[in-house]
Amino acid sequence: MPSYQSLSVITKDIGCSIIEYRPGFEEKWAFDLETLKTKITPKTRLLILNYPHNPMGACLTYNEMASIAALCREQRLYLIADEVYRFLRMDENCSDASFADLYEILDNAGVHSGSRVLDVACGTGVLMPDYLSRGAASITGIDISPEMIKLAKQKFTQDNIRFVCGDVETADVGSGFDAIVI
Q1: Reported pTM
Q2: CATH number, position 42
Q3: Measured between alpha carbons, how far is residue 49 from residues 69, 82, 107, 131 in Å?
Q4: Quick one: 72 and 161 in the same domain?
Q5: Last residue in a domain, options 102, 121, 150
Q6: Angle CA(118)–CA(123)–CA(124) in degrees, nearest 5?
Q7: Residue 101 bridge partners (DSSP)
Q8: What is the C-alpha to C-alpha distance for residues 125 and 152, in angstroms, rounded to an integer?
Q9: Which of 3, 59, 136, 150 is the most exposed place for a label (fewest CB within 10 A)?
Q10: Is 118 found in the same domain as 82?
Protein backbone atom coordinates (compact mmCIF):
# COMPACT_ATOMS: atom_id res chain seq x y z
CA MET A 1 0.00 0.00 0.00
CA PRO A 2 1.19 3.55 -0.34
CA SER A 3 2.69 4.48 3.00
CA TYR A 4 5.17 6.69 4.76
CA GLN A 5 8.61 5.38 3.77
CA SER A 6 9.95 5.01 7.32
CA LEU A 7 7.19 2.53 8.19
CA SER A 8 8.37 0.04 5.57
CA VAL A 9 12.06 0.64 6.37
CA ILE A 10 11.49 -0.06 10.06
CA THR A 11 9.42 -3.13 9.21
CA LYS A 12 12.22 -4.52 7.02
CA ASP A 13 14.87 -3.65 9.62
CA ILE A 14 13.17 -5.81 12.25
CA GLY A 15 13.05 -8.77 9.86
CA CYS A 16 9.51 -8.69 8.54
CA SER A 17 8.57 -9.50 4.98
CA ILE A 18 6.64 -6.87 3.05
CA ILE A 19 4.11 -7.50 0.32
CA GLU A 20 3.30 -4.27 -1.45
CA TYR A 21 0.16 -3.14 -3.16
CA ARG A 22 0.54 0.10 -5.05
CA PRO A 23 -2.37 1.41 -7.09
CA GLY A 24 -1.08 2.51 -10.47
CA PHE A 25 -1.31 5.43 -12.82
CA GLU A 26 -3.35 3.37 -15.30
CA GLU A 27 -6.03 2.93 -12.63
CA LYS A 28 -5.80 6.66 -11.76
CA TRP A 29 -4.35 5.58 -8.40
CA ALA A 30 -7.73 4.02 -7.53
CA PHE A 31 -7.88 1.50 -4.70
CA ASP A 32 -9.10 -2.04 -5.45
CA LEU A 33 -10.17 -4.20 -2.51
CA GLU A 34 -10.02 -7.41 -4.53
CA THR A 35 -6.38 -6.77 -5.43
CA LEU A 36 -5.59 -6.06 -1.78
CA LYS A 37 -7.19 -9.37 -0.76
CA THR A 38 -4.81 -11.26 -3.08
CA LYS A 39 -1.85 -9.78 -1.17
CA ILE A 40 -2.95 -11.13 2.23
CA THR A 41 -1.36 -14.41 3.26
CA PRO A 42 -1.77 -16.57 6.39
CA LYS A 43 1.35 -14.83 7.75
CA THR A 44 0.02 -11.29 7.23
CA ARG A 45 -0.34 -9.43 10.54
CA LEU A 46 -0.32 -5.74 9.62
CA LEU A 47 -1.75 -3.44 6.96
CA ILE A 48 -0.13 -0.03 6.53
CA LEU A 49 -1.63 2.65 4.31
CA ASN A 50 -1.93 6.36 3.94
CA TYR A 51 -4.83 8.06 2.28
CA PRO A 52 -5.25 10.56 0.89
CA HIS A 53 -1.92 9.73 -0.61
CA ASN A 54 0.71 12.38 -1.12
CA PRO A 55 1.72 13.25 -3.82
CA MET A 56 -0.91 11.56 -6.03
CA GLY A 57 -3.91 12.84 -4.09
CA ALA A 58 -5.67 9.50 -4.38
CA CYS A 59 -8.29 9.05 -1.69
CA LEU A 60 -10.78 6.53 -0.39
CA THR A 61 -14.55 6.73 -0.25
CA TYR A 62 -16.35 5.91 2.98
CA ASN A 63 -17.42 2.52 1.55
CA GLU A 64 -13.84 1.67 0.59
CA MET A 65 -12.64 2.58 4.06
CA ALA A 66 -15.39 0.52 5.69
CA SER A 67 -14.45 -2.44 3.45
CA ILE A 68 -10.80 -2.19 4.48
CA ALA A 69 -11.74 -2.01 8.17
CA ALA A 70 -14.02 -5.05 7.74
CA LEU A 71 -11.25 -6.95 5.95
CA CYS A 72 -8.81 -6.17 8.77
CA ARG A 73 -11.35 -7.38 11.35
CA GLU A 74 -12.07 -10.53 9.34
CA GLN A 75 -8.37 -11.34 8.85
CA ARG A 76 -7.42 -10.20 12.40
CA LEU A 77 -4.93 -7.66 11.04
CA TYR A 78 -3.53 -4.63 12.78
CA LEU A 79 -4.07 -1.46 10.78
CA ILE A 80 -1.73 1.53 10.72
CA ALA A 81 -3.45 4.33 8.82
CA ASP A 82 -1.48 7.51 8.19
CA GLU A 83 -4.25 10.09 7.79
CA VAL A 84 -2.15 13.24 8.08
CA TYR A 85 -3.64 14.63 4.83
CA ARG A 86 -7.20 13.50 5.65
CA PHE A 87 -8.79 16.94 5.35
CA LEU A 88 -6.66 18.11 2.41
CA ARG A 89 -8.61 16.56 -0.42
CA MET A 90 -9.38 17.72 -3.92
CA ASP A 91 -12.18 15.25 -4.63
CA GLU A 92 -15.57 15.68 -2.95
CA ASN A 93 -16.06 11.90 -3.11
CA CYS A 94 -13.22 11.45 -0.61
CA SER A 95 -14.35 10.55 2.88
CA ASP A 96 -13.59 12.61 5.98
CA ALA A 97 -14.04 9.44 8.01
CA SER A 98 -11.16 8.14 10.06
CA PHE A 99 -10.03 4.55 10.34
CA ALA A 100 -9.83 5.27 14.08
CA ASP A 101 -13.63 5.24 14.16
CA LEU A 102 -14.18 2.59 11.53
CA TYR A 103 -11.78 0.16 13.20
CA GLU A 104 -12.92 0.86 16.76
CA ILE A 105 -9.53 2.21 17.84
CA LEU A 106 -11.11 4.97 19.87
CA ASP A 107 -13.54 2.47 21.42
CA ASN A 108 -10.60 0.35 22.55
CA ALA A 109 -8.85 3.45 23.91
CA GLY A 110 -11.92 4.26 26.01
CA VAL A 111 -12.91 7.50 24.27
CA HIS A 112 -16.60 8.10 24.93
CA SER A 113 -19.04 10.81 25.96
CA GLY A 114 -17.64 12.81 28.87
CA SER A 115 -14.06 11.54 28.44
CA ARG A 116 -11.03 13.64 29.24
CA VAL A 117 -8.63 12.77 26.40
CA LEU A 118 -4.87 13.22 26.01
CA ASP A 119 -3.82 12.95 22.35
CA VAL A 120 -0.05 12.33 22.19
CA ALA A 121 1.64 13.32 18.90
CA CYS A 122 -1.59 15.03 17.85
CA GLY A 123 -0.04 16.71 14.80
CA THR A 124 -2.51 19.16 13.31
CA GLY A 125 -5.38 17.68 15.31
CA VAL A 126 -6.46 15.00 12.87
CA LEU A 127 -8.49 13.11 15.49
CA MET A 128 -10.13 16.16 17.09
CA PRO A 129 -13.36 15.81 15.02
CA ASP A 130 -13.59 12.17 16.11
CA TYR A 131 -13.19 13.05 19.81
CA LEU A 132 -15.77 15.82 19.48
CA SER A 133 -18.26 13.57 17.69
CA ARG A 134 -17.96 11.11 20.57
CA GLY A 135 -18.74 13.87 23.07
CA ALA A 136 -15.34 14.13 24.77
CA ALA A 137 -15.58 16.64 27.63
CA SER A 138 -12.02 17.92 27.25
CA ILE A 139 -9.18 17.21 24.86
CA THR A 140 -5.50 18.02 25.31
CA GLY A 141 -3.31 17.54 22.25
CA ILE A 142 0.48 17.52 22.54
CA ASP A 143 3.08 17.49 19.78
CA ILE A 144 6.78 18.41 19.60
CA SER A 145 6.34 20.36 16.37
CA PRO A 146 5.54 24.05 16.84
CA GLU A 147 4.21 24.26 13.27
CA MET A 148 1.82 21.36 13.78
CA ILE A 149 0.53 22.90 17.02
CA LYS A 150 0.13 26.28 15.31
CA LEU A 151 -2.01 24.70 12.57
CA ALA A 152 -4.03 22.70 15.10
CA LYS A 153 -4.80 25.85 17.11
CA GLN A 154 -5.98 27.59 13.94
CA LYS A 155 -8.28 24.70 13.00
CA PHE A 156 -9.74 23.96 16.43
CA THR A 157 -10.76 26.89 18.62
CA GLN A 158 -13.32 25.17 20.82
CA ASP A 159 -13.10 25.92 24.54
CA ASN A 160 -12.75 22.25 25.45
CA ILE A 161 -9.65 21.72 23.25
CA ARG A 162 -6.17 22.68 24.43
CA PHE A 163 -2.88 22.24 22.58
CA VAL A 164 0.58 21.97 24.12
CA CYS A 165 3.86 22.14 22.22
CA GLY A 166 6.45 19.95 23.88
CA ASP A 167 7.63 16.50 24.83
CA VAL A 168 4.94 14.47 26.59
CA GLU A 169 7.52 13.15 29.06
CA THR A 170 8.47 16.64 30.32
CA ALA A 171 5.63 19.04 29.42
CA ASP A 172 2.86 19.94 31.84
CA VAL A 173 -0.21 18.42 30.19
CA GLY A 174 -2.21 18.02 33.36
CA SER A 175 -3.62 14.82 34.78
CA GLY A 176 -6.84 12.91 35.30
CA PHE A 177 -7.25 11.70 31.73
CA ASP A 178 -9.75 8.93 31.01
CA ALA A 179 -8.12 8.05 27.68
CA ILE A 180 -4.64 8.53 26.30
CA VAL A 181 -4.30 8.06 22.55
CA ILE A 182 -0.78 7.60 21.21
Answers
A1: 0.56
A2: 3.40.640.10
A3: 12, 6, 21, 22
A4: no
A5: 102
A6: 105
A7: none
A8: 5
A9: 150
A10: no
